[in-house]
Amino acid sequence: MRAVVTRVLGASVAIDGAVTAKIEKGFLVLLGVHRDDTPEDAIKLADRVCGLRVFEDENGKMNLNLAAAGGEILCVSQFTLFADTKSRRPGFTEAARPDTAVPLYETFMEACRNRGFHVEHGVFGADMQVSSVNDGPVTILFDTRS
């Protein structure tokens, strides 16, 4: 699995002009599922994301995790994170098909909820407009394969 995690002051997803998901301070997580990923990958990634210490403490140091900062998660499926960019037109053969990707996307979000976080999400496969107010900016890349 791959995730692009951005620390945000707020983020939202709109579909056909209507906001369907919204968070305040927290993480916008763009989540890509590889065709060989497993539920264990989703749980491992949720643990890493939820424990990420990138919020500032009282001394201005990035030392607090999402729980200590009182943050939320907005998770958006992003199969393009597995784009093959060897040519000008990317291929997506490494991305999981929906029958594999959807359950793992759900497993990731449920693992975050089980850690006590409020999780909003986009609609898998929908044409979404994602808005965010990046904080920092702080953006961290995760890949369970590396």
Which superfamily, in CATH terms, is the homologous superfamily?
D-tyrosyl-tRNA(Tyr) deacylase
CATH architecture classification: 3-Layer(bba) Sandwich
- What is the CA-based Rg, rounded? 15 Å
Helical fraction: 10-25%
The total count of strands amounts to 8
Query: Could you list the spans in which at least 5 consecutive residues all have pLDDT below 50?
Result: none
Query: What is the rounded distance between the termini?
Result: 10 Å
Biggest sheet record = 6 strands, mixed
Can you write the helix and strand succession as a string? EEEHEEHEHEE
Into how many domains do the coordinates divide?
A: 1
Overall shape: it is globular
> Approximately how much beta-strand content do the residues carry?
35-45%
Task: Explain this structure.
- The protein is of the alpha/beta class.
- The protein has a single domain, classed as D-tyrosyl-tRNA(Tyr) deacylase (D-tyrosyl-trna(Tyr) Deacylase, Chain: A, 3-Layer(bba) Sandwich).
- It contains 3 helices and 8 strands.
- The strands form 2 sheets. Strands 1, 2, 3, 6, 7 and 8 form a 6-stranded mixed beta sheet that branches. A two-stranded antiparallel sheet has the order 4-5.
- A hairpin with a 5-residue loop joins strand 4 and strand 5 (62-64).
- Helix 1 (39-51) crosses helix 3 (98-114).
- The longest helix has 17 residues, at 98-114.
- It is globular and about 45 Å long.
- The N and C termini lie close together (10 Å).
